[in-house]
User: What shape does this take?
Amino acid sequence: MDDKALRSLVSLLDDEDPRSLRLVRERLLDAGAAALPYLEEARAASEPAFAARLDAVADELRFHDLSAEFTALAAQRVPDLEVGALLLSRFGHPRVDSAVYRAWLDRVAAAAADEIPEDAGPTESVRRLAAHLFQAMAFSGNEANYYDPDNSYLSRVIDTRRGIPVTLSVLFLLLAKRLRIPAYGVGTPGHFLLGYREDGEAHYLDPFRQGRRMTAPEVKRMLVRNGYEYKPEYLRPCGPRDILARMMRNLLSIYQKTGSTERAERLSTLVELVVTGRDDEREAA
Assistant: This one.
């Protein structure tokens, strides 16, 4: 549809006939993101009741497009962690510009690279990156407001420099990937960790505690202290699909507990999309 047709279609949302409204809504959803500027244009000069209707359609349209992108992501044999994390940010903050945060990650990785000797092994590389991120840049766990939904959105973690274990881990992993540092996620229950190996031995970091190094016995004690039975498989590397699902389920739990029913329902559909294909990812690992 051209500009005139889209603008006319948006104006028809002021109709009070339910059948007409349903047809208009379906046409706008078919138009996709192209209709958003016209919804925003109409909203700027509308009464509160009509503005609310325009917002509802715009919100549905954005979610429709986001679902399509999550579907494409889930179809990948191994989903791209960075793409998925930034898509999730758009669930909570629809105007997030992913390119801005990718550029930020590029700049931070370049700055961290200057502090890592070319001949550094995994342990030294991880230590230098952790120092850059958690000390020089002051990223840390959000202990004061742990259950703030923004802690689960990578874009907001970057903005505020506060997060929860899994999102701080994702941030570290995205930088490590750029620097070719062989770090991986460790999906220990209740508290996500980072891991890496050197000389056949596994080492662990707690991103919520400024990258504090942990041994396997210390991880075991942490799990038992937090009420979990220790299982060796908890220390296995966690793939991108599982990491994304964990981020989303954490957020889903928050929305369910706070009574944000519509957000919870929509997010649960995205979780189902992401967990599809789990076995394929394990085969590719």
Observations:
- Residues 48-74 form the longest helix (27 residues).
- The chain has 13 helices and seven strands.
- Strands lie at 140-141, 162-163, 183-186, 193-198, 201-206, 212-214, 237-238.
